[in-house]
Amino acid sequence: MIDHTHDPVARTWLAPDSEDTHAFALQTLPYGAFSLPGHDNVRRIGVGIAGHILDLAAAQQLGLVDDLDGALRPALRVPHLNALLALTPAQWSALRHRLFALFVDDDSGWKGARDVIRQCLVPMAAAHMHLPFDVGDYTDFYASIHHATNVGTMLRPEQPLLPNYRHVPIGYHGRASSIVVSGTPVRRPSGQVLPQGQTAPRFGPSQRLDYELEVGLVIGGENALGEPVPIGRALDRVFGVVLLNDWSARDIQAWEYQPLGPFLAKSFATTISAWVVPLAALAPRRVAVVRAASDPPPLPYLLDAADQSSGALDLDIEVRLSSTRMRELGEPPHLVSRSNMRDLYWTPAQLVAHHTSNGCNLRPGDLLGTGTVSGPQPESRGCLLERTWRGTDPITLPTGETRRFLEDGDRVEFGAAVGLTCCGEIVPARDLTDHGRMPGMAPGAPD
Amino acid sequence: MIDHTHDPVARTWLAPDSEDTHAFALQTLPYGAFSLPGHDNVRRIGVGIAGHILDLAAAQQLGLVDDLDGALRPALRVPHLNALLALTPAQWSALRHRLFALFVDDDSGWKGARDVIRQCLVPMAAAHMHLPFDVGDYTDFYASIHHATNVGTMLRPEQPLLPNYRHVPIGYHGRASSIVVSGTPVRRPSGQVLPQGQTAPRFGPSQRLDYELEVGLVIGGENALGEPVPIGRALDRVFGVVLLNDWSARDIQAWEYQPLGPFLAKSFATTISAWVVPLAALAPRRVAVVRAASDPPPLPYLLDAADQSSGALDLDIEVRLSSTRMRELGEPPHLVSRSNMRDLYWTPAQLVAHHTSNGCNLRPGDLLGTGTVSGPQPESRGCLLERTWRGTDPITLPTGETRRFLEDGDRVEFGAAVGLTCCGEIVPARDLTDHGRMPGMAPGAPD
Q: Where is the active site (chains A, B) (predicted)?
């Protein structure tokens, strides 16, 4: 069956609202949650196209989806994507095809509805974006063998890659409460760090603040606890993808992470893009898995012929950085790295199948990060720890400033080929002299 | 101020509904969520006392809390504790004092309301208990220095305790979706394990299934992202405690945990008690922190005079185990270990202060596990890994059966001095030959 929503020559009749070519093509149709100025508590879900947002609650109210599955309609009135995520791939597909039909420039029956469609549009530039979904559990994987090898080389030059890496998708549980939407300022965390050459730690602002360039898989549907998802059905559980910045405080991480893994070094903030690109929109980017001849074959529960032949995603992603000084001088953000999701060692389907292989239940709104997406080249390393090789090889910005790690005022912007962006700006650490005085709380002993 | 809710000689006028002395004293008044047979979807929150449950929605409806803070009343109609958790310590305290007044056997004005109170009671034996609150983020600490030392001795005899242990409360993020209420069967997980002497893993049922005896702190209130909770106010964020079993598959854990910590070895199930004992009920159990003279002083953000003098909790907890055979023979559960929460290296306040020290936001319904609570004696080791010393020193059950790790049909029951219980029975692993056929899903390739 030909899926018209991938037709590369299809165009929309809708005039773009902005010159921003990243404001989403007809073939992308991403989902997000927005509000309008002065109505911050009135949130809606919408679809991005050509600099506009189609208000899905309005579209539902004005009859644009009346003939679709009855379960879809109430989901469009919920102010976040979770109700939509709880539906099935068939329902997601039906909605996507309807949205494509509404906006494609052809002579279908929907041509007569364009005035109604226009009533449901909001200029993207006027909208305030919120977290697109309530994040349930957040898991972060470590799926880039290049990233794992680089980090391992710094820590264990004699054994860069641990013996388990090529067999088991390494992952850990992350913090969901501190996931924020693109554009939210990120406060530099304080924490315990062990100063070089000392045996006792001090507490203070992190001096080695980093980003991590990742893609997040947004989970839809639910498997019962105890019931694994077989790899052949695993992609049915991926609604779409976001860009994800797993901000990391490397000095806090180095001190705390043994033996149970990263904790406060990561839990101060994680940023995701405001828009979720449906997996269906990435179908033309599905490519074969490439493994080295020396790599062991995946165990049967991670092996699926269709996944091996088309389970990797050819998605270019990049990091740009601007300092306060650069922005004062009107300099555009500086390209720091560019990598591609196809270089990951594990596919999205393998991550889902592995995650549930012990019976763990994934729920709608769960988020699976890929881990830092690094490629084989130095310019494709997805975090500063790797890019500056632990700070020993600083990058130089157009202003002549150098960076080993992030400075206050730095703005980090991720971009992806489909038009996703994910950005955050570092604000200074909290004044520690104020540590004992919380806003709205009188000082005093506990009850 | 004298808090009458701790008066050890106070008694309730209510006749106990059962002979079970663990069915909660007047001084305990724990909270839970229940339904009645045939009405599984009609859930209420309630308070346990003497084998009865006070239906809080009914109590609110019949006017027993009419004069309390207006924000309390709607919270009592919500079918889980989260709305109550979102309130303040002052509101929690007001409710507790009212509940005590309703049930204490004295001549107060509430004596005349006993017929109304009786209308709000349900026999505990008839109720079906549910998860008491929707768990947000679940964090698991590693706060027992005895546990950390024992495990470290097995893994690194030359350095049992890592250099960071006495400085930084070690913790990691856990999986919230697979947290289940006491009594829920626990399916033996399958996963990748590395057979002894081999270099490639196999996938199959865990052969080293274990429990971990823990206490969970139930978080109330919310701090804004970026705003740490000072240690002097940290206990205001602890609504109460549960018993927690952090089921662990040691063979899966050994293979997967480097370098990012435990993942699928833990995420197949975590059991918590159906009842949450308010921290206020544990006030008589608050004791001074005892540290060895050689232990470093906590960094200032973890140091508070009141916490040092009364921040530890003297709470006995224990593990009992019964095999299928024991139950067939009518044998009572066998006491395997008994330990005490006061032996933890870090206090609850220190765990909260540390968790938020990087600005991480804790939200109502978050759960903080202490980690396995082991004491200094062999009989106080809180998991089989330690108790049987990695299986080298099996325990013998009254039937003559031995245990290195858990067998199918084993039932593990935790108990605490205040009457909390937390139990789960191991059911056999899922048949792996059925792996590709999920209920309700036709086999086939992904779309």
A: 147 (proton acceptor)
